[in-house]
Design a protein that fits this description.
434 residues, alpha+beta, seven-stranded antiparallel beta sheet, five-stranded mixed beta sheet, 12 helices, 43% helix, 19% strand
Length: 434
């Protein structure tokens, strides 16, 4: 018996080792989702079919939303996904809504899922209450399966068939959902959600640490410990403001419901689309550049919703797209194993001297340069803020026990008391000036 146990132990050890290695390799593999948006060119008959699908999906969304609201008022409970989908077979048999049977069934079920998700987001505080859809707004439907990707076309189920597409990049992975949408300018787009398996990149902080101060005059001022760089604000909306004003004035003079109003509305939408495309192009290029050149990026957690309450700066702030820029930075750094650090929005990055840490009481927005009362260092407002943001990000990482390269700058004071702002620096906090 003792010999058998001795013989079985090595085998058992080998099996356990193989299971552990397999489990570790499974943990290192992560499922990633990526959406690729391509332009499609349906024929006139396919456009008519898509219009019918858009109409069916929109009608079912509004009907299900109204039914959920009435049920909630009567019983205090809303209808779930199963209860709503159970209404579809009855509606398809009724004479008034028999045309619902012509619509691809999975499109309607996907609409139900989206409505239930919208309700969950509302009750979780992540979004506002779902609204009714109009045929005058953006139209979109979702196909959860049975969509096939061809060389230069997309095969859509439900009788639509192959639709010509401009596939501008290789699409590899399993297709999960395809969302077909029509923009206000009349363009048709297909957003393809693909699922791929890959190794989870190891997050590393070894490399350049960049501090970014976002603004209106200069979109971004960066500091990497050695050099300060400025990226001017393109002001996309301001460049098209005169043209947009003319188009909106012409639109306002058109009679509601007329064909000339539809043409004027399409021309106005083209200007907005041009502005949106230019903004996204700028943000993608800048975020790509900064994420490739730096391993850690430190940025302020700005409260944009509160900042736009200032009506003098609301249009300029909204035109910048700070939130979109932060999202682009986050996922691009995550893909390469970098890290995005967001510091508290109340951190006094502009009021703090990056040399001696003397903090002034007031600094209006019109003050772009200032001199420290303690060390007499002359500061550019945004460049000084970027240096302080970078140092605060390094301090936050070191507080969490993460090793980070400070780029030659010491980040812990050697003497003197610690700053009440918990700000790291090689120099002690300077005493206030008399």
């Amino acid at each position: 018996m003792g010999r058998r146990r001795d013989e079985q132990n090595p085998r058992l050890t080998a099996i356990l080792s193989a299971l552990i290695i397999k489990e570790d390799s499974y943990k290192s593999i992560v499922v990633q989702h990526q959406a690729v948006k391509v332009r499609i060119y349906p024929s006139p008959s396919q456009e008519q079919q898509l219009a019918q699908v858009f109409g069916c999906s929109r009608w079912w969304w509004n009907y299900a939303l109204n039914k959920s609201i009435e049920t909630y008022k009567e019983t205090g409970k809303s209808l779930g996904q199963i209860a709503l989908n159970a209404l579809l077979p009855q509606l398809k048999k009724q004479e008034e809504t028999v045309w619902l049977a012509d619509c691809y069934s999975q499109v309607l079920q996907a609409t139900t899922l989206n409505l239930v998700t919208a309700y969950k987001n509302f009750f979780a505080g992540r979004a506002r209450f779902p609204r009714f859809k109009s045929k005058k707004g953006k139209q979109s439907v979702q196909y959860p399966q049975n969509v096939k990707l061809l060389a230069n076309a997309i095969k859509i189920p439900g009788g639509i068939g192959e639709v010509k597409a401009k596939i501008h990049r290789p699409i590899e992975g399993e297709i999960k959902t395809v969302t077909i949408s029509k923009t206000p300018t009349g363009k048709y787009l297909a957003s393809i959600l693909i699922e791929t398996e890959g190794n989870n990149p190891k997050v590393s902080t070894e490399g350049t640490v960049l501090g970014i101060d976002l603004g209106v005059k200069d979109f971004a001022v960066t500091y990497n410990g050695i050099k300060t760089s400025k990226y001017s604000n393109p002001k996309h909306l301001a460049k098209h403001e005169k043209n947009l004003k003319r188009k909106q004035q012409k639109l306002a003079r058109k009679q509601d419901g007329s064909s000339s109003r539809l043409r004027a509305k399409k021309l106005t939408a083209k200007v907005y689309e041009r502005v949106s495309n230019a903004r996204q192009d700028f943000l993608h290029k800048l975020s790509h550049k900064l994420s490739n050149e730096n391993q850690v990026v430190v940025i302020e957690n700005l409260h944009v919703k509160g900042m736009v309450q200032n009506h003098n700066l609301a249009k300029a702030i909204s035109d910048c797209g700070w939130g979109m820029f932060t999202n682009f930075l986050a996922y691009k750094l995550e893909r390469k194993g970098g890290k995005l650090v967001e510091i508290n929005r109340f951190f006094p990055s502009s009021k703090l001297c990056s040399k001696c840490f003397y903090q002034i009481d007031e600094m209006p927005l019109d003050v772009r340069e200032w001199t420290c009362h303690s060390c007499k260092t002359h500061h550019d407002r945004d460049g000084n803020a970027a240096a302080n943001i970078r140092a605060e990000g390094i301090r936050m990482l070191q507080t969490d026990g993460i090793a980070v390269s400070a780029g030659g700058e010491e980040v812990r004071p050697k003497k003197g008391r610690k700053s009440v702002l918990r700000h790291s620096s090689a120099k002690p906090e300077a005493p206030p000036c008399s």
